[in-house]
Amino acid sequence: MVIITRKWAMANGRTFKIRPIREFVEEAVQEVDVCAGGVIIEPFANDSRYGTVTNDLNPKFSTDYHMDALEFLKERSEEEADLVLYDPPYSLNQAVQMYKSFGKEKLKPGVGNMVYWAKCKDEVARITKVGGVVLSFGWGTNGMGEMRGFVKEKILIVAHGGSRNDTLCVRERKMEHYQPRGKALKRSGKASESTSATAKEQ
Q1: Going edge to edge, which strands form the sheet with 2-8?
Q2: What does pTM read for this prediction?
């Protein structure tokens, strides 16, 4: 069962500073025992401080790495993360403008190509432990998806009013060992995602 919640909050360019989203993130963060070696990975960290391993292309942020997100994810170990906070640019245009400003517009595949973002999700699936959680943020609710071995648990819709797009936050749990596309998933639990949902509006 997927729990769907809708809340209202002022928009903010720093996603995790929006109160309902911050609470959504901190709920998941608190489930990870960092003192016991739990790993939280942020490939698009910005100024967030939730991750134990952080990356952002912009060198002005004090992250552990300043790499292209896909290359950063490729360097992580398989099934390393208990939690991944996946907060990329929300549109291809945003991505192209951001990467161009740092001289990364000639990546292959380029960030203006959906192949690039599919590969990022493939890598997130690879590095997340079975039983681990991925929080995805953007203007859609596709998340990692069943094809990568994930089941949706919660969707938070944050409305900002006026002509602004809602921010959509998706919590998914990895139920299967990830295998590259075209290969069967190794099952370790329930794979099918329930289509029923409990919706509540606050």
Answers
A1: 53-54, 40-42, 81-86, 128-138, 167-174, 150-159, 2-8, 197-201
A2: 0.85
